Amino acid sequence: MNFVSTRNSDNKATFTKAVLNPMAQDGGLFVPDECEDLRRWILYADENTSFASLAGALTSAMINKEYSPIICETIASKAFKTDPVLKQLDDKLFILELYHGPTGTFKDFGVSYLTSALETIAQYNGEKAILLDVTTGELGACMANAIRDKKHIKSVLVAPKGKFRGLTEEDFVWNGGNIFPVEVEGTEQDCRNLVRKIFSQKSLVEKYNLTVANTANIGRLLPQSFFYTYAFAHLRKIVSGDIYYALSAGNYGNLVSGLYAWKLSLPVNGFIVPATPNLQCNAKGQCMVLDSVVPVEKRTACDPCDPSNIERLEQIFKANALMLHSFVFPSTVTRALKEEACKELFVKYHIYADSDTSSAYAASLLQKKLITQDDGTVVLIARDSPCLDSDFICHNIGEKPEVTANVKNAFSPVELYRKSISPDDTEALISVLNSINLLRIF
Prior knowledge:
The chain is an alpha/beta fold. It has helices at about 15-20, 40-45, 50-65, 70-80, 105-125, 140-145, 190-200, 200-210, 220, 225-235, 255-265, 310-325, 335-350, 355-365, 370, 390-395, 405-410, 425-435, and strands at about 5, 10-15, 30, 85-90, 95, 130-135, 155-160, 180-185, 210, 245, 270-275, 280, 285-290, 330, 375-380. It is built from 18 helices and 15 strands. Helix 3 (about 50-65) runs antiparallel to helix 4, helix 5 (about 105-125) crosses helix 6 and helix 13 crosses helix 16. The longest helix has 19 residues, at about 105-125. The radius of gyration is 21 Å and the shape is globular. The two termini are about 30 Å apart.
């Protein structure tokens, strides 16, 4: 499988290039080029197939022209130590929980896969790479867990002073770890501007082999397509009708990855999402993406540190507009409907549902006629641990879910006891990159 830019289909890249250089030269984001038929791999999996095994098989099927099956299996086996948890709530409703990893968020899967792929690629090609990202929450903890045993990659994380979470002394480069945290005397926006300045200098990107761990990187986004395949493998022997996935739109990453799974021949009948300003229904009730008024060729480059996958969604719709009009189903979910959905999930199924999960469930209830007409089943996607949204849950049901140990550790404040840098001090950040680049052990 090759990858192309959202802004120019002639701008092609291999998996390796797309992961190491996620921002296309024309300013776009990389997306899968071919629509390979992976049905035989998908139908081979069943309820006994682990997530790592399934991911290894699908990775091999997608990039077998670039890497051997053994290398692809290595990427997946080292990335995934836990499986998503699929629970049956009633005859026609399941929930896929994606938060049982180290930090209690679905990001654990994508970050682990990306770092495993980068480490394997770097080792195979005799290279090294540095991930440069902004964080104010769980990304630091996700990165710490994913990169701890790596030999060929390092992570530079930039955050406002006092905002680092979930790191330990052993994680820091100066203690032999793989993460160099940099605190900035400013806001999250200041941190993003600082990182943008680094990525805008192509010579620095090339010199330090800089890449990102957010969903601008297709290597972070692609493994999220495995969620849907995993759910299907565990459902296909017990579900005979249509299968719909209900999920929060978020930054459109999970929806885009689900559509990639469909393009790769995953049997699925549709995706149900709460409507957003960019994803709505037209006058005929068909899904539509409200494209930017600025043509892609005149847009500024996609943001390497604050990506939105709306451009990837636009690209999918332009290529498959007629099909997707009847394949993605946005529903307008009010706050009242979301709160009622949270209460219903608790009362009927004793599920603590955060705001996003509640919105997705409310959207599925609004599409009940569509779902039931062909004996449909809904798989509700729960991305993050409910204890991360305990105030919303308590407001609706009167009690809070217990904070699990892994989430508590992932969000514990970190004291660095090191000098912070000013928001405009790009030279200080370049000095950090240079110090890592000169490490003999790296």
